[in-house]
Design a protein that fits this description.
- This protein is mainly α.
- Helix content is about 80%, strand content about 0%.
- Helix 2 (about 55-85) packs antiparallel against helix 3 (about 90-110), helix 2 runs antiparallel to helix 7 and helix 3 crosses helix 9 (about 225-250).
- It is globular, with a radius of gyration of 19 Å.
């Protein structure tokens, strides 16, 4: 059986049957393309930000809420539940510890880097009064938050459920688009040239590419940490949704629309999981 494209699932995995394993080179190409797509979503969002510099709160909140719903569904269905399945006898304990560890890690990051919505709002008046140091801190905060999001995308490929991993990456990428959009206006208002502004946006996206590859590499060399890694990634996503995305989308009078957009995003992922699962 040396070199055979099949493997037996270890006892404790609820799916005790033969699973086809894709060639490593093919999987690596898929992960790399996904990483570029996740990071590229931030760059794509920044290009939209150049074209539409005065996007309304309502539109921004709806898009971000939809992304939050997609990410919420992806975190539960694509990361936390698989963590339980792969964890065996102690799956529930490993998953709970992983979720809280992921949340605590992002909480510590927030202690070092102030919350995104406290640094820069989306009001034009705020943008014009924002100084360069504050804007650069804002961009740094987005870059730091992108790293664990990228890791979550990479870790999801460790489960070998490529369809589910792609949906998780899609949810993160969708959230990155409005994130890239909000970088542009404050930097231009602070006097940063368009070229340097775009480079900064590109760097924040590249950090997510690095995170994706790092997450996949970690679970590839040590499959034993997969259950914890999946739960950890799920915990980071739940923290971002609750601490950043939902408060931001409910702060400008669009609570009802934002709530239904979140439900719509969640259901889109639910339907996708049903038909692809």
């Amino acid at each position: 059986w040396r070199g055979a494209p099949w493997r037996f699932v270890k006892k404790g995995d609820c799916r005790n049957f033969l699973i086809h394993r894709r060639p490593v080179s093919l999987m690596m190409k898929i992960v790399l393309l996904t990483a570029l797509g996740v990071g590229g979503a931030t760059i794509f969002g920044s290009l939209i930000g150049f074209v539409f510099r005065n996007i309304s709160h309502k539109f921004s909140d709806i898009v971000l809420s939809f992304a939050a719903g997609v990410m919420l569904s992806a975190a539960v269905l694509g990361l936390i539940l698989p963590s339980l399945n792969y964890g065996g006898t102690h799956g529930i304990l490993v998953s709970i510890i992983g979720i809280f560890t992921g949340a605590v890690c992002l909480n510590l990051i927030d202690k070092l880097v102030p919350h995104l919505h406290r640094l820069v709002g989306t009001d034009t008046e705020t943008h014009r009064s924002t100084n360069l140091d504050k804007v650069l801190l804002f961009v740094t905060a987005i870059a730091i938050h992108n790293l664990p999001e990228g890791i979550a995308a990479g870790v999801s490929f460790g489960s070998e459920d490529t369809a589910q991993a792609m949906m998780i990456a899609f949810g993160i990428a969708l959230q990155n688009i409005p994130e890239g959009m909000v970088i542009i206006a404050p930097m231009l208002a602070a006097g940063v040239s368009p070229v340097k502004t775009f480079v900064c946006a590109m760097v924040t996206g590249l950090i997510e590419v690095v995170g994706t590859l790092l997450g996949y590499w970690a679970v590839s060399i040590a499959s034993a940490i997969l259950p914890f890694s999946l739960a950890f990634a799920g915990g980071t996503m739940l923290y971002v949704i609750s601490d950043e995305m939902i408060p931001e989308t409910h702060a400008h009078g669009s609570e009802t629309g934002a709530t239904y957009a979140l439900l719509a995003g969640f259901c889109v992922m639910l339907v996708s999981d049903f038909f692809l699962g």
